Amino acid sequence: MSPRPLSFILAAALVASVVAAGFGAAESRAADDATPVGLPAFAGVQDLEVEALVDHRQGVMRAVSGHMAASAAILLDGAPFEDRISVHGAALAGLLADVPSLFPEGSAHDESDARPEIWEDSGTFSERAQDTEQRAAAFGEATQGGNAMEMTQAFISLGDSCGACHDSFRF
Amino acid sequence: MAVGRGRGRVVLFLVLALLGSVLLLAYGWERSVAADAGPNPSPPAAVGDTLVDAAELRGDPGSEDPVVRGAYLARAGNCIACHTEEEGDELFLAGGKPVETPFGTFYGTNITPDPENGIGEWSEEDFVRAMREGRAPDGSHYYPSFPYTAFSGMSDADLSDLFAFLRAVPAISRENVPHDIPWYAGFRGGVGFWKMLNFEEWRFEPDPDRDEEWNRGAYLARAVAHCSECHSPRTRSGGIDESFRYAGTAEGPDGETMPNITPHDTGIGDWSERHFVRYLEFGMDPDGDFAGGSMADVIREGTGFLLDEDRVAIARYIYSLDPIEHEFD
């Protein structure tokens, strides 16, 4: 094969990336100017962004649930993976470190089960989130130390806090 | 039954309803004049000799002390969730908790032994009549938002223990909040009509073909924890649709979706009993997700405090139900 097509592809890629970068820059400049959204061309992009935010936070919540289910199997049902419990503990502490950041203003969406109260009563929402964050950190710590009783208590207390937030802020 | 026999009846009904709501208003006014004191910050609850912290109250069905056995039943029957406005000791069982229904908002009443605002003047017979027949000491009917439709099936011994417990909690002088319901529903005679169609006093009878564990679970689920009061669709007259008991509804009280909890694939057929027991203990489902809505209250104030063997018994009973296919969103 002649090298021609390859250099052509590279050149095309370069042009494309320059264009893309220019577009990105234009977009971020527009954002810097805090220009109100007016251009219909951007509406689709924004919509996609919200969808991505919703996908992301739902994905995080499902990941959190997966670690909860796995931890329960180990701590309460005796699945023989005690040596891995700290992995779940660390993941939970990490994923739940800043729940409010998953719910930026304006990220309500048809596909989302987030209630408007998240933004209307953001004080209470942050309180719930902080409560969970602290309990997740405590569970993460307990799984490093290894006392089964402490781990189980920390685990159940973390679980209670999930329900407490869902109760008021999730449809 | 003569459902709607002509216009005369409707007019009579409306007149009676109006009269009823006027009476209710007058009654409410009299009560609010009588009750001057606000919530009375209570001493820590000392129930029997065993309990100090009402919010952590657990009880024990095997205790010698009727008060402690009664506390356990209060947990199983979820009395605390509907009769305590805020978590904690201060207003324990002193009412004011909103109970949403399609007919309006009802408020759980003060059931502490306060003589004026609570049930301090009640005899045990008064209490038994309320629980078994849904009738107040003056003979008037209670709204079925108070699930006496289920409690009616409780045993004499358990009702007696429950009353002993209610006598032992600290009296709190807190006025009842009037129900927020449309004027035509303010007429308790209308409730009598509803009861005629949908309520029959009953008593749980153990099934001799089943073992003790199953019977214990059936008793707890049906007569005490009243699971099917929420987890069933209603007929047009507001009774439970028997062919779908436990099979859930998209139109539960307060517009909540009540899942199908029969052991069918469209229900909890794919949960193991272990998952089910864990759910009743602290709300975690098999996916690691956590219960919300009114079920979170049922668990937090009720089933979470039961002995594991009782949660297992409830599971045995629920898993023995006919699987009913019922899907909705």
Compact description:
The complex is a heterodimer of chains A (171) and B (329). In chain A, 74% of the residues lie in helices and 0% in strands. Chain A has 171 residues and is mainly alpha-helical.
Flag low-confidence runs of chain B. Answer: 1-8, 10-52
Number of helices of chain B: 12
Report the structural category of chain A.
Answer: mainly alpha
Order of helical and strand elements of chain A: HHHHHH
Overview of the structural elements:
The complex is a heterodimer of chains A (171) and B (329). With 171 residues, chain A is mainly α. Chain A folds into 2 domains: 1-34; 45-169, Four Helix Bundle (Hemerythrin (Met), subunit A). Chain A is 74% helix and 0% strand. Chain A contains 6 helices and no strands. In chain A, helix 2 (40-75) runs antiparallel to helix 3 (85-95) and helix 5 (122-145) packs antiparallel against helix 6 (148-169). Chain B has 2 domains: 64-203, no CATH class; 227-318, no CATH class. Chain B is 40% helix and 2% strand. Chain B has 12 helices and 2 strands, in the order αααββααααααααα. In chain B, helix 4 crosses helix 6 and helix 10 (273-282) crosses helix 12 (308-319). The radius of gyration of chain B is 20 Å and the shape is globular. The two termini of chain B are 35 Å apart. Residues 1-8 and 10-52 of chain B have low confidence and may be disordered. The interface between A and B is medium-sized, with 20 and 16 residues.
Keywords:
heterodimer, A: mainly alpha, Four Helix Bundle (Hemerythrin (Met), subunit A), B: 329 residues, mainly alpha, 2 domains, two-stranded antiparallel sheet, 12 helices, 2 strands, 40% helix, 2% strand, disordered N terminus
